[in-house]
Amino acid sequence: MANQRVSNTALGAAICRLIEQYQPENTRLFHDPLVKDLVGTPIRVLMQFKSMRNLTMQQMDAITPGIYGVQISRTRFIDDAVRDAISQGIEQVVILGAGLDTRPYRLAGMEHARVFEVDLPSVQEDKKKKLHKHFGRLPQQVTFLPIDFDTQSLEVVFTGTPFDPASPAIFVWEGVTQYLSEEAVRRTLAFIATSAPGSILVFTYVLKSFIERRSDIPGAEKMMEIVAKRGSPWLFGLEPESLASYFAPFHLRLIADAGHAEHQAHYFKPVGRKLVVSEIERIAQATVVRS
Predict the structure, then answer these.
(1) Three-state secondary structure call for residue 92
(2) DSSP code of 267?
């Protein structure tokens, strides 16, 4: 059930990225030419029809308004963060809970980085088959590391790999933390804390008030019931005002925290797009420091 849960959430995020590819180039938030080959033929064919794309987005927003908007916003935010990190000389990229992430294969400069995709083995095996079919081989710069975040530590998983803890890295943790126990989240942050100063963490989080069903955001109760019934309950959340103090014990200094207002101002309004962006999920960026 856990493997299927992760596979389904990875697929949902990928479908949002695929739908975005049908936006006009001048208003599209990002370019992802590979995603169509990772979602599978039936979905790829269905999404060619505008009616199906619209229906898919309507079904998402019927649960909680703005799910599609927040998904594509976080993709753009992380794309920018990874590009900036590479331009600043960071040569290691760690994608935690990589799912169907395509950044190692589409962002400029990634071909020169050491990339580590960390996820459940079943999710990775399916993805590797699709990557091999697309490229004719597996890209040499990517190392696939199997893990179950709830039961295994990153320290053990990275032992004996080409990862260099003395060299700065950027850690991408997208759409994962809400499914984990707080213990698993803290364990992961503790590993990141041991990385070289200047390392970067960019990660998404769901509001704690939403997790605890104290939120007045439309659809909150319905969303929590649906994810629970699907076998993928949301367990962990944070609040913006507590981020800095939560990061502090892990040698992480908060440098950015963005939600629906920032996404509207930075991504949609400048290109004239009117799209609802959910308030339930935010994205934060922090850097490893040593006092």
Answers:
(1) strand
(2) I
Mapped onto helix, strand or coil, the DSSP state of residue 93 is: strand
For 125, the token pair is 């095996």
Locus of tokens 């399916």: 126
Nearest to 219 by CA among 162, 288, 279: 279
Residues 245/268, Cβ–Cβ less than 8 Å? no
pLDDT digits (tens, 9 = 90+) for 157-196: 999 999 999 999 999 999 999 999 999 999 999 999 999 9
- Which ranges constitute the DSSP H helices of the chain? 2-20, 35-38, 41-46, 50-63, 67-87, 103-106, 121-135, 154-158, 182-193, 208-211, 220-229, 243-247, 260-263
pLDDT tens readout for residues 31-51: 999 999 999 999 999 999 999
pTM here?
A: 0.95
Place of tokens 């995020």: 13
The two three-digit tokens of residue 255, written as one number: 């440098």
Helix axes 50-63, 67-87, angle to 10 degrees: 100
